[in-house]
């Protein structure tokens, strides 16, 4: 399969790792312990690099009119009510105060949210995606990510579903049409390379500035 690859300014998009989905006892829930652990590691990597991080949650007002046909089709979404613990991001990947948590009502992270504007304002060209569920909100978000012009990378070990069949089938489709489904090891290698390039660039700039100051001082002495 063709690879769309990576750019130079990635953001981490964590889709719907909220208690309504990560608590296996809820109607929407599954055991995403491994995927959460992968996401937690990536969060530390992005934080260390001071790169953008975006989380999403789904929450509806009482009466659920803001859920439209989606709630009518999937009534179990009614556990995701504003103010409920079910809409909080799982504490295992708790957002820091300065990290953006976007509220959405439908499957895609981009539909009727300002995530695209938030990322473009920060010159992001690549989205690294984790979250749940693969067959629902991950697939929808990956499609929109590509359609908004981002190089889209789904971390295979960082996304999950309640059943293996839909998980595998949708990863296959995403990889074939909308983005790159890759291992967390590949993402970590990319991030290390990015950090190295930034360090080299910073060193080049520092060396240039040092030369410029020396040259300016020399010219000043000659003029004197």
SSE succession: EHHEHEHEHEHEH
Gross morphology = globular
Strand percent estimate: 15-25%
Mean pLDDT across the residues is: 92
Q: Which regions are unreliable across 5 or more consecutive residues at pLDDT < 50?
A: 200-205
How many domains, as an integer?
1
Provide the helix percentage: 40-55%
Please report the total strand number as a whole number: 6
Name of the CATH homologous superfamily: Isochorismatase-like
What's the architecture in CATH terms? Answer: 3-Layer(aba) Sandwich
What radius of gyration results from the CA coordinates?
21 Å
How many distinct helices?
A: 7
Q: What is the CATH topology assignment? A: Rossmann fold
Instruction: Report the span from N to C terminus.
Output: 66 Å
| CATH class bucket | Alpha Beta
Overall structural class, as computed from helix and strand content, comes to alpha/beta
Give me the side-by-side strand order of the main sheet.
3-2-1-4-5-6
User: Biggest β-sheet: count, sense, barrel?
Assistant: 6 strands, parallel
Description:
This protein is of the alpha/beta class and 224 residues long. The chain has a single domain (10-192), classed as Rossmann fold (3-Layer(aba) Sandwich), CATH 3.40.50.850. The protein is built from 7 helices and 6 strands; from the N terminus they run E-H-H-E-H-E-H-E-H-E-H-E-H. It has helices spanning 19-22, 33-48, 68-73, 115-120, 134-147, 164-177, 184-223; strands at 10-15, 53-58, 100-104, 126-132, 151-160, 180-182. Strands 3-2-1-4-5-6 form a 6-stranded parallel beta sheet, with helices on both faces. Helix 3 (68-73) links the parallel strand 2 (53-58) and strand 3 (100-104). Helix 5 packs parallel to helix 6. The chain is globular. The chain starts with 9 loop residues before the first strand and ends with a helix. The model is unreliable at 200-205 (pLDDT under 50).
